[in-house]
Amino acid sequence: MSFTFIHAADIHLDSPLKGLEKYEGAPIEDIRNATREALKNLVNLAIERNVSFLIIAGDLYDGDWKDYNTGLFFVRQMTRLQQAGINVYMIRGNHDAQSIITKELKLPDNVKEFPVHQPTTEVDEELKVALHGQGFMTRSVTENLSKDYPRKKEGYLNIGILHTSATGREGHENYAPCSVEDLIAKGYDYWALGHIHLREALHAYDPVILFPGNIQGRHIRETGEKGCTIVHVKDGSIDAYEHQAIDVIRWEVCTVDVSFAETMEDVIEEARMQLEQLQQQTDGRFLAVRFQLTGASPMHNQLIVNKEYVMNNLRSMAITLGDVWVEKIKFNTTRLVDLDQLKEQHTPVATILEFLENVKEDEGTLQLLLEEFKDIYHALPYEVKHGEDGFHFSDSSALKDRLQEVEDLILYHFQTKEGAR
Description:
Low-confidence stretches: none
Distance between the termini: 85 Å
Number of helices: 12
Shape: elongated
Radius of gyration: 27 Å
Order of helices and strands: EHHEHEEEEEHEEEEEEHEHHEHHHHH
């Protein structure tokens, strides 16, 4: 018996995409619907490829539904698969554990959900496939669920479905941990894993043990192609498998080296060239991009002082290219000015710079400055105090970074006045 099935995971339906800063021309609503459109693409792919079944290895939902529309949307997509004669096998993960989801809708008969109390087996006698799985009862499952999975069913293609951190991955909670050896010991032909959002094959063949990654990136830490795995079965064995991109929005970091830029126009033009190259790699998808300006540049001080100008000109350029949204602009350039040489000149500016350098090395002074800032802490906006670029009022290293920006401002205004003489 030869057939094809799809292995997907971590759909996070209706997940709120992070970092959606609004500005004129930003297609925020299109971005918000990305997880729904990606699920539609998954269903379309299953129908177009005439697959025998679809596996969803946990985290179909991102958490409890805001309202029933999330569930109704999923039912509608599963009904399309039912009409095409395609079964769906799914388990719950940490984000849609049984204890988290409070609302419920009856699903079409083609959807088979594995229980959360113990692993069970679903058998397709026509295809000679045995699927083994167990979902999460609670968000935090710390025991090795795979140990209780049944042994393989002889004479069948055996597939294990498991939401797990495996041996642990950076950025992911350590849920249902297990080793590759634990999974191999079960004698299955394929392990359909979920939870890790980066595609990764833990074992290439005999058995295949694979994370397909999530189907839609949700923030800048989930860059590159996102999608599912198409698995080809021939004569009752795994013959081949392939990644299929189905994401709607592609998140990417656009690194722009401005080392040789002499004007603001040079910076924008270099960014345009790099962005156009990224666009060519997205196959027409919408691009959510973070610009990262780098390099030791004569433009460094100007960029720091004129951040708002640079940011909005990059956004404007992205709008003209079309289908691009600028998530953020990071200024990681460095100055060309030699501070040590400046300090040797014994000018007023050199005295100020030397004082700032001494402050950065004096932990006692830094702590005194942090104490002064505590008085205005509650008056500052939330985004100033939190997030990736937030100022941490208990962290002296954050204060050192700000003092370096002060140095850049002083140098900029000093150089501007020198040039005007």
